[in-house]
Amino acid sequence: MTVSSTGTPTTRVIGGLALLITGWVVVSAFFITPADSVQGDSVRIMYAHVPTAWIAYLAFVTTAIASGFSVARRHRTLGFDRVAGASAEVGVLFMAMTLITGSLWGRLTWGTFWQWDPRLTTTLFLFVTYVGYLAVRRIDTDPRQRASRSSVIALLAVLEIPLVHFSVVLWRSLHQEASVLNTDGDVRLDGLMLFTLFSGVVAFTLIFVWLVIHRQRLTTLSDLERVVGLDAAITARRAENSAGVTA
Amino acid sequence: MKDLGFILASWLITLGSIGMLAVVTTRQARRLSTRVPDDVKPWV
Amino acid sequence: MNTIVAVAKKDLRIEWRTRTLLARVVPFALLVLVLFAVALDSEALLLRAAAGLVWMAMLFSTMLVVQRAFDIETSDAAMDSLLACTAQPSRVFYGKALSLFVQLFALAAVLVTAAVVLYGASVNGNRVVLLVTVVVTATGGLATVGTLYGAVVANMTGRDSLLPLLALPVLAPLLIAASRATEAAFGSQTIDLANGWAWVGVLVVYAIVFGSAGAAAFSPLTESDS
Lengths: 247, 44, 226
Known about the structure:
The complex is a heterotrimer of chains A (247), B (44) and C (226). By secondary structure, chain B is mainly alpha-helical.
């Protein structure tokens, strides 16, 4: 009998907990927490927005660290590379949601979907950088080569992001048009609001872990399938040849 | 509730895309895991 | 040092014989400047945007030049024989970057002249010093990042579309810094000369960071992947 999934008891526990806490966050965000005194009801978007942003950054840090380990091990253990890739995939999705929910919130609070402030601009470049990273991973090649190529890009991204951030900050601070809007969404949060936000971070972290474990195993499967498929093809050819010889 | 459309849209997009990724991942995993023997799967 | 110059000379000689830069890249870059003018359709707006547009055209053209610089190496596995001739791959990196620098510098000179002629940008007095420094430092950054990412994508399938996707976000700080500094050199009202020089500082840091990163990453990148 073959095990027909990438699930294990551990991942089931993580998944169950994630669902449970996400359910609580949704209920609390919509029905229990009060509207904010400054932002009004739009603060309810924040309970989804802040955790996705946090997870996206966590994902990209994970990718960078895993890539570093992969390089240190000279890509002999492909596990690091698979975690790096899975983490970047989840990170790109979460960053996309961060940008979308952020601009919806911005429309309500600032009156515009987008503000060219340093944090937003850096985030956008971060997003595009990892889209490029995933594009490189999609090239059909053997796993070792995929690992060595993508780790270089992941490590260069670590170099790139501080430079982007620094230059964008300098750009906006030297910009002489007066800033019309205060882009800081900082508000005073009461205990329950803070707790809901915190629960959201916990829930999304569990979701992140669940997704990375499964997607990392999925990469393992498709890498293995490559080998199994190749073996099968070779065996078939051999059988063909020997049949030809005997005939 | 004011601006319910924006708030609902944010949550639906967020949870919807996470859910979609989870579904796609598990379906692909089901499909692929039948093609690979158990003894090489590290988690079994 | 000899290796660096030899590699650069080799690349420039190939370039001179085929005249890709002259026949294709320069006309393309000028075309981009003309098309921007048509799209913006306002002389005041053009003058305001001149610096940014020049560097946008430079970024796009860099993609073409880099593509070309690595196509000549990947055909016939020329890179392998090149690396076999020298002990230090970092010198090959600097050589290729130097050749790219020379080509892009010539292109930048053409584009700045075009901005003066077509967009009515003006440079005078001590602003010329700033302008030349900006062009040198920004072109240095373009050359190092271009060589680095050219090497990254050199052996990949579909590299023509991957190069811009990977390199352009990395070039964003350079675009910001070079545009602002050039704006100052063009005598715009929004940025004064001192700020222009501050941006040159950013460009220098940028070129040094990617110059050293590229030299360090070049040998693992060009090891034949197998």
